TrEMBL record:
InterPro entries from the UniProt entry: Fungal_SecMetab_SDRs, NAD(P)-bd_dom_sf, SDR_fam
Entry's Gene Ontology cellular component terms: cytoplasm
GO MF, one example: oxidoreductase activity
Protein name as it appears in the record: SDR family NAD(P)-dependent oxidoreductase
CDD domains per the UniProt record, alphabetical: carb_red_sniffer_like_SDR_c
TM helices/strands, residue ranges: none
Pfam families according to UniProt: adh_short (PF00106)
Amino acid sequence: METLDHDSNVLVVGASGGIGAALVEQLLAGSSARRVWAATRTPDSPRLTALREAYGERCMPLAVDILDEASIAAMAATLRADQPRLHLLINAFGLLHDEAQGIWPEKRVESISAEGMLTSYRVNTLAPALIARECLGLLNHSQRAVFASLSARVGSIGDNRLGGWYAYRTSKAAQNMLTRDLAIECTRRARRVICLALHPGTTRTDLSEPFQARVPEGKLFTPAFAAGKLLARIDAATTADNGGFYAWDGAPIPW
């Protein structure tokens, strides 16, 4: 990435997921960033351990529980103690289904579960909000910085033609509003920060696994492909894109 030089610091939250891990790998291999923080509940995973061994202190696995407010605050404190500036923060996590908790995309309004809705909101909306609260100060400096969250096209109100998937759609729509709200605030107090909502396309990960058979040929992406496209969009972003919602190919998505 051309916008990340040897003094740049990056944070990827959700770094053990399919897209998150691919983002960490490509940021390490394709940029000269000083440090890539890989935040996840499993910082000692084999994939991150291998990257740590290959890249040394450029790759910094970091423990965080995105459902724990104190854990998010501790993550930000660790970053501040090391280097009080971030140049890129990517929220690379999301919840669509969880068999253990009985969460599944709803086809009918009768299938809505209060617990499922609240859990989806906590992961897809509240976690990015708390991360923004704790990390905006790290992004707010004299250089360009980007706050990007992986959203989903189904979170678009204007593009919703099929209905259903109440918990996921509404929590992602709320996440989009958070991104837009933060972007407006940044124009007043953090003018070098660019806030983006990004749709990675349908990617071969655990999140999409139950639905992959229905994806048209050529539209199911590998995590590496999706990560590369997302990083290219982030790299090209200017302050004119602040508050935008974009697909993996750079095309704008209606709110």
